[in-house]
Design a protein that fits this description.
The protein is mainly alpha-helical. The chain is 69% helix and 0% strand. It is built from seven helices and no strands. The longest helix is centred in the first third of the chain and has 37 residues.
Amino acid sequence: MIERVLKEREREALRQKLNMVIGVFFSEVGTMLITDCSSFVREPGELSQRLRFSPQWTDKDFTQVKDFLDGHEIRMDSSRGDLLALKSFLLEKKDFMLRLLENPNLLEHDEFTDLLWAVFHLIEELEARRSLNALPIADMEHLSGDIKRAYNHLLREWVVYMQHLMRDYPYLFSLAVRTNPMNPEARVEIADQSL
């Protein structure tokens, strides 16, 4: 019995450490990357609507949005956004993300590790091209697929992280709602007492 309790405490401590690392990722890279990648989405309307978290959200709302993401195909077009700006941002954050991979706790979180690998692959694809201007259509489609892969992982992990904030850190959740990159009306300043 004591051993079971100790193992549960150990698991909880590891979960908290992982969530801290994931939180740092979203503060430093993830939230801005959501903004940058969103500019490549062909039909952002419903996706943007579904990801407008509010202080009134419950676990049921998060389950529904996870189900939506699992069943919704996000269509990307690499010619819609600014590939050069995306490349520049990712290269600026590459060392930070490499340091995240050095964290042994991440080995316990396959989904987040998959997210980092998808982002690193996107960085390599963008970095490998001498120029991002006048690329052939087939190459643009290939880049669209790479952006889509990273974005899909990013959104799924973001939703899980937001649910964690709602449950365990409501003050951080409040700030995340007010700075939501998927909500063009989001404002950090508090105008409503419910936030």
